[in-house]
Design goal:
The structure is a single chain. With about 200 residues, the protein is of the alpha+beta class. It folds into three domains: about 5-65, Nucleic acid-binding proteins (OB fold (Dihydrolipoamide Acetyltransferase, E2P)), CATH 2.40.50; about 70-130, DNA polymerase, domain 1 (Orthogonal Bundle), CATH 1.10.150; about 140-195, Helicase, Ruva Protein, domain 3. About 45% of the residues lie in helices and about 20% in strands. It has nine helices and seven strands. It has helices spanning about 35-40, 70-80, 85-95, 100-105, 110-115, 120-130, 150-165, 170-180, 185-195, and strands at about 5-15, 15-20, 25-30, 45-55, 65, 140, 145. A five-stranded mixed β-barrel has the order 1-2-3-5-4. The protein starts with a strand and ends in a 9-residue tail after the last helix. This is Holliday junction branch migration complex subunit RuvA. One of its GO terms (biological process) is DNA repair. Pfam families: HHH_5, RuvA_C. InterPro entries: Hlx-hairpin-Hlx_DNA-bd_motif, NA-bd_OB-fold, RuvA, RuvA_2-like, RuvA_C, RuvA_C_sf.
Length: about 200
């Protein structure tokens, strides 16, 4: 799975599309429009590092989403996994709020601030708030709390398996069932695949 790309900023197209040159590749990366404006004004022709998330959505070509820090990347993964959000709206949220600002908006129930995000509006903000209000807490299952430092592994494993075509609810239930604190991302995905797709139970040479 892609994690970070280093390259030269070649083009920044409105409102939020970056072309990054890295070795022999030119990467098309979608990012928060607030970040795109910063890159357009200050980083054309300069080398940067971008934290990325690769999404393989059904019946569409792969898309890369980019961020300048790990915190935004991990929050994007969380937002994208919510049923009422998805990648475009997750990107809009991160265009308007930093991770800490979004946390405060939800904790203080500032629905009007949430409604000003492009693509939300007042009616949708109320419904979206219900999904977002538990986003920044710890993940628990049957009284067991998953450590925050392990939460990223769980969320990335879920995103990977959903991209492979498995249902979100089934993936989440399976990951909670097989998760152990010592799991790496690769190991967790392998364990989940054995539950979700029996053909993966056979050891590969």
């Amino acid at each position: 799975m892609f994690y970070k790309i280093r390259g030269i900023v070649k083009e920044v197209f409105s409102p939020n599309r970056l072309i990054l040159e890295s070795a022999v590749f030119f990467w098309e990366i979608y990012m928060p429009f607030s970040l795109a404006e910063i890159l357009r004004q200050n980083f054309l022709g300069k080398e940067i590092e971008v934290f990325v998330v690769l999404l393989l959505r059904k019946n569409e070509y792969p898309e890369l989403y980019g961020f300048l820090n790990q915190e935004e990347r991990e929050l994007f993964i969380k937002l994208n996994n919510l049923s009422k959000v998805g990648p475009k709206l997750a990107l809009n949220l991160l265009s308007v709020f930093s991770p800490e600002e979004l946390r405060k908006v939800i904790e203080e129930r500032r629905i009007k601030d949430l409604a000003r995000v492009p693509g939300i509006g007042e009616k949708r903000a109320e419904r979206l708030f219900l999904e977002l209000k538990g986003l920044f807490g710890k993940i628990t299952r049957k009284g067991f709390t998953i450590p925050l430092e392990k939460e990223r592994i769980l969320l990335e494993a879920k995103a990977c398996l959903v991209n492979l075509g498995f249902q979100s609810k089934e993936v989440e239930e399976t990951l909670f069932r097989v998760f152990e604190e010592e799991d790496t991302l690769e190991n967790l995905i392998k364990k989940a695949l054995k539950e979700l797709a029996p053909a993966f139970q056979e050891e590969r040479p």
